[in-house]
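Researcher: Structure prediction, please.
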Amino acid sequence: MTAAVFFGCAFIAFGPALALYIFTIATEPLRVIFLIIGAFFWLVSLLFSSLFWFMARTITDNKDGPIQKYLLILGVLVSVLIQETFRFMYYKLLKKASEGLKSINPDETAPSMRLLAYVSGLGFGIMSGVFAFVNTLSDSLGPGTVGIHGDSPQFFLNSAFMTLVIILLHMFWGIIFFDGCEKKKWSALLVVLLTHLLVSALTFISPHYGINLMSTYIIMVLMGIWAFFVAGGSCRSLKLCLLCQDKDFLLFNQRSR
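Model: Predicted structure follows.
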């Protein structure tokens, strides 16, 4: 991979996330802390997933064939379940912290759960994207074919776009997940879990990377629209935002819930 291709893919993968971080989080130290904690929670979930994968491979003695295929499917299922479990644990932690801040200083306005959901989701997404991009780089440095199926010359470009969509999806999933927890809409949590499983499965089931990417973007758009309205958006507020008359309506002037 040439330097130009590398920086191009990196810009595609992390450009929007970096812009979101700079304009909505970087200027607020508390938001930066919550984002870092969210990234740490995702790292811990990755650690548990890796431990499961190591034990499973050890038990099967690294045998090839159908066993590894089914083991990979099981590994994806377990990994997604662990990630969503840690997302729920992070929600509970933030909920307790928010209640604690209110009890200590009732006059202080605590960050809204909508804001915390956005920040934590972006933290999950950025860390997940970093590891996905690192895996892509490891493929680019080795000999032989690239990609799972080894038949796509646009593998690195597709991987960059996939990394971007995973980052944004985690942000949308975080908003929907936290809102479901707040309102006890468990069906929303189930949708987040199922779409997370679907997106993760698409990355290795089919050899057609372009179709997988398009399918994932469709899911991202649907989740984005849902998250927009869940976060308090409306057609009117979107119009005002596009006209620069109501900037950052999702992040500022939020009441605690």
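Model: Confidence is low (pLDDT under 50) at residues 143-151, 249-257.
Researcher: Thanks, that helps.
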